[in-house]
Design goal:
Layout: E1 12-13, E2 20-21, E3 27-28, E4 36-40, E5 47-49, H1 75-91, E6 101-106, H2 107-122, E7 131-136, H3 143-151, E8 155-158, H4 161-169, E9 177-179, H5 186-195, E10 198-201, H6 204-214, E11 235-240, E12 262-263, H7 269-279, E13 283-287, H8 297-318, E14 325-327, H9 345-355, E15 365-368, H10 372-375, E16 379-391, E17 394-399, H11 407-411, E18 420-423, E19 434-440, E20 449-457, E21 464-467, E22 488-500, E23 503-514, H12 519-525
Parallel strand pairs: 6-22, 7-8, 7-15, 8-9, 9-10, 10-11, 11-12, 11-13, 13-14, 14-15, 17-19
Antiparallel strand pairs: 1-2, 2-3, 4-23, 5-18, 6-16, 16-17, 16-21, 18-21, 19-20, 22-23
Helix pairs in contact: 2-9, 5-6, 7-8, 8-9
């Protein structure tokens, strides 16, 4: 790599188990958690090749240190922490020839996003209103991430037995957990109701199943009308307001034919919903989710307004405040075009307060289910350039990051373009004139490109390419093409120190979130213990 590695006993802490990783990246048991300290030049940010415009809104904001619209930390804060983390990872062997790909999570950035979310809704909600912000586990299904969010006041929205198991392993209590899925089994429903987890029924057949299960449950603490069990779990119905879609069809969940929820505008559907609540006093919630990336805020607000109007109609027609909580979903889109956070939670909350003022007057509790917007900008995948070559006169940097960690980008680059930042062999932001080049992944097919025709300082063998804004739906969703290994995931935090040798000193502390996958695990997951299973047939 062209640099000597520090061989001191600095360690990388494992926040879950109290173990460490030595400066060579080798697991070491019982080592104390210490900071990794090294001198750094002032961070100006790596040169990031802007993602071309596509279905994923870029926001059009300038890159760099512009502050987030509506408050919160600036993009330059994140850039500085990211630069420090990449440099420290290289210096201490977490990233290098023997560890050519790594995923990084910016812990201070995640905490800042949580604080911004909570403050945004607190600013528009009547005092004393029950509000649960439940993180959509599908966005980043990693137990330490869920635990971090939980300790900062965020619950969990789960959509499978696996996601529920992850939330429980992270310590998220049932009362802060919401179960959403269009295909819940009887066993899943029974478990959720027994635990007291909130359930949003997706369709009439699922509600019939819940009817049968509720009859077998003891009365909950609130009781119910004579002869009508009142389950411990808050239960609601998910509706599809059918208000239309955005620029990414696959993420538009309120179209006329979406698979989610009860289609509100279909013939007879609205009357069925009202009657369902009238017949079941224990139905106390109403849920809708319009979509996520590619959905304009105005359409999201319209979907919530339709849901609020339905709740008002149901309560009026049944003659009581039966629906007491509205689950408004999540879906705030992310700006993948620059380091600026836009739109912000504050902007969205203010828009909802203007469009649906009754939502925040204290008569309804609220549940949100944000995912991508909480984590995306706080994750970075960094991959070593194994070879630098050219084809047809265009430079090609062959890296270890491709379809296995950026599946959506590789298969649908128009909808999911990523920005790329260039770092040199010692982990510093790379300087030099921009050169149009391709950043290729390791998989054996021609389309495995992380970025195509991107203008960056020329990446050379031993340099590093960093895929930005990848904290959600990227490295935690491994695609095992070519049996490529899952990268190690590390959280980091940096603390400013004093001057050392005339430069700024930064202590970077890492924690293991998920160990890098070894080939032994790949073999085990691929039936390695049963090599003769088929030959015996």
């Amino acid at each position: 790599m062209g640099t000597d590695r520090d061989t001191t006993e600095d360690s990388v802490s494992d926040g879950a188990a109290g173990t460490g990783v030595s400066s060579t990246g080798t697991p070491s048991t019982g080592m104390p958690s210490t900071g990794i300290s090294s001198a750094a030049a002032p961070s100006g940010g790596a040169s990031a090749g802007g993602a071309p415009s596509g279905g994923a809104p870029s926001g059009g904001a300038p890159s760099g240190g512009a502050p987030s619209a509506g408050g919160g930390e600036s993009g330059s804060d994140r850039v500085a922490r990211r630069d420090d983390a990449v440099r420290a990872a290289v210096e201490h062997g977490l990233l290098g020839p023997e560890a050519p790909i790594i995923a990084l999570l910016d812990v201070p950035g995640i905490k800042a996003s949580v604080a911004e979310l909570r403050a945004a809704f607190d600013a528009v909600t009547a005092p004393g209103t029950p509000v649960l912000h439940a993180f959509a586990v599908k966005a980043t299904p990693l137990v330490p991430v869920l635990r971090l969010l939980h300790e900062h006041g965020i619950g969990a929205e789960v959509a499978s037995p696996g996601e529920l198991a992850l939330a429980r392993a992270a310590g998220v209590p049932p009362c802060e957990t919401v179960l959403d899925s269009p295909a819940k089994t009887i066993a899943e429903l029974r478990e959720a109701l027994a635990l007291g987890i909130a359930v949003n029924a997706d369709n009439p057949q699922e509600l019939d199943r819940i009817d049968g299960l509720v009859g077998d449950l003891p009365d909950g603490p609130n009781g119910g009308p004579a002869g009508s069990p009142h389950p411990r779990s808050p239960i609601g119905i998910r509706v599809n307001p059918q208000v239309g879609g955005g620029s990414i069809e696959a993420l538009s969940t309120a179209t006329a034919t979406s698979k989610f929820g009860v289609a509100l505008r279909d013939e007879g559907a609205r009357e069925w919903i009202v009657q369902a609540y009238a017949d079941r006093p224990w139905l106390t919630r109403l849920h809708a989710h319009t979509g996520s990336q590619g959905i304009p805020l105005s359409l999201m607000a319209r979907g919530i307004a339709e849901t609020y109007a339905l709740a008002e109609e149901i309560n009026r027609r049944v003659g009581r405040q039966q629906i007491d909580t509205l689950d408004i979903g999540g879906g705030l889109p992310v700006n993948f075009g620059s380091d600026v956070t836009t739109p912000t939670y504050a902007q969205y909350a203010r828009l909802l307060a203007e469009a649906v003022p009754g939502l925040f007057d204290g008569r309804y509790g609220l549940v949100t289910e944000f995912g991508r917007s909480l984590l995306a900008k706080h994750g970075t995948v960094v991959a070593r350039v194994e070879y630098a070559k050219s084809a047809g006169g265009r430079p090609v940097a062959v890296t270890h990051a491709g379809v296995q960690i950026a599946t959506r980008t590789v298969y649908a680059p128009g909808s999911w373009p990523l920005r790329i930042a260039a770092y040199d062999a010692v982990g510093h932001p790379k300087a030099g004139p921009d050169v149009v080049q391709d950043i290729a992944g390791p998989a054996c097919f021609a389309g495995d490109l992380l970025a195509e025709g991107r203008a960056l300082p020329l990446l050379e063998q031993g340099d590093y390419a960093a895929a930005l804004d990848t904290g959600a739906y990227y490295f935690a969703h491994h695609y095992a093409y070519n049996s490529l290994a899952r990268p190690g995931v590390y959280g980091f935090a940096s603390v400013e120190g004093g001057n050392r040798g005339g430069g700024r000193s930064t202590d970077v502390r890492f924690a293991v979130v998920r160990e890098p996958q070894g080939v032994e695990e790949i073999v085990a997951e691929s039936g390695g213990a049963r090599p003769t299973a088929l030959t015996a047939l």
